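User: Could you check the structure of this?
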Amino acid sequence: MKRFDRIGGVFLIAGALLFGLIHLAIAMYIPGRGTTISSERLFQTLYEMHGFVPYILSLIFMLLGVYFIFFMNEEKTDDTIQEQV
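Assistant: Sure, the predicted C-alpha cells are below.
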C-alpha cells in the first residue's frame, strides 16, 4: 500500500463520517420543527443549523480521498513505466 492510498483512505473515511454525522444532525433537528425533510428543504435546514461548511467540507474530503486512491496511483504508474523504457 502506497502513501497516497493511506492518505486517500483517511480522507475518504473522514469525509464519509462527517457526511453521516451532518445527516444525523439534520435528522435530529427536523422533528423539533414539525416538518418533513425533502430535497428542497435540505438546504434550508442546513442554513438554519449552520451546517453548510461541514457539509461542503465532507464532500471535498470524499472527493480528495477518491482522487488520491484512484488517480494519484495512475500518475505514479505512468512515471515508473516511462523510467523503465
